[in-house]
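queue> pop job 88
queue> type: inverse folding (structure -> sequence)
queue> payload:
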């Protein structure tokens, strides 16, 4: 959705290693925002985005208007299930993955890529898009790229610009709590105890936690213990007016 940072640019670098030509889509998708969310204030940095992509040698930028994506009379929307109804982001943003699936399917059809590169930072979104492409027999491969982080561990995000200096100082706690939880699980701590400890660590830094979950890394179904591998730890929490998400593998 633009406001590109080095996490986005890492996707371009990965794509250039995998394909002869690289197309980057930029579209701030209104269907992903509820009326109470930040569509009108979402950071838009078009000139800087174009300069960064040109410096990396991107072959094409596909930046459709809202009228192109949702012309008058548009009435078809996808309603994904499976990982889109896992009780994570969908529990707090029930509109979100329908908007994601609809716009990404349109972008896939418009651009016709062989490979589509997404970041793992939005892990549930990656799983939703992967399942959508497979279920709809779209002729492409979805590739997930590891999260790019600041030096202190905070996952890069366009919304990090909303953080005040004290909030920015607290924000890396999300990653530290995930790592501590993963270490505790590997050391044999029961899953619920490890999750509870991780959640308390995040709350202790001043966050209001939406979820701190351990899920199967492919289906996003709940797991009972570390034996139910592969496992992904996922967290979403709010500090001030900013909502941050993060995840790691166990």
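queue> result:
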């Amino acid at each position: 959705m633009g406001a590109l940072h080095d996490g986005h640019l890492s996707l371009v670098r990965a794509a250039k290693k995998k394909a002869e030509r690289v197309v980057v889509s930029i579209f701030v998708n209104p269907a992903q925002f509820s009326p109470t969310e930040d569509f009108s204030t979402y950071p838009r940095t078009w000139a800087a985005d174009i300069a960064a992509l040109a410096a990396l040698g991107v072959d094409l930028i596909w930046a459709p208007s809202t009228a192109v994506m949702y012309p008058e009379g548009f009435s078809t929307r996808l309603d994904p299930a499976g990982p889109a109804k896992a009780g994570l982001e969908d529990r707090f943003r029930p509109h979100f993955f329908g908007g994601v699936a609809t716009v990404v399917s349109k972008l896939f059809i418009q651009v016709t890529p062989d490979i589509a590169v997404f970041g793992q930072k939005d892990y549930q979104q990656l799983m939703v898009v992967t399942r959508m492409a497979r279920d709809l027999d779209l002729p492409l491969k979805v590739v997930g790229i590891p999260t790019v982080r600041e030096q202190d561990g905070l996952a890069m995000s366009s919304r990090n610009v909303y953080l005040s200096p004290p909030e920015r100082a607290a924000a890396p706690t999300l990653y530290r709590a995930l790592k501590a939880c993963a270490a505790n699980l590997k050391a044999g701590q029961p899953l619920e105890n490890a999750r509870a400890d991780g959640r308390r660590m995040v709350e202790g830094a001043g966050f209001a936690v939406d979820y701190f979950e351990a899920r199967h890394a492919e289906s996003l179904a709940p797991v009972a213990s570390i034996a139910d591998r592969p496992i992904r730890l996922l967290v979403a929490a709010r500090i001030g007016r900013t909502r941050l998400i993060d995840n790691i593998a166990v």
